[in-house]
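[step 3/7] fold_predict: job queued, chain A
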Amino acid sequence: MNEQYEPYHRVRAGVVSRILSVSHPTVKKLVQRGLLRVAARTPGGQALFDLRDVQALGQQFRDFGSETRIPPEPETSTS
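[step 4/7] structure written:
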């Protein structure tokens, strides 16, 4: 099903951080690690997130435990 989203379904990183109870740098880490995707960008380049994605991630955090935990980045060998 390919739904069209209205602008009110998109939220900025500050709203994401409040919904998930994490800091803004943590929101950036969630994006970098592929746990949260940027749905669109404002004309000024600010990231916008789909509210349903944010709510789903919040539910995963609640199901996992009371603390938000981001998996560590995979180690890369330098040899």
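[step 5/7] annotate
The first strand starts at residue 10 and ends at 12.
Helices lie at 13-20, 24-32, 51-64.
exit 0
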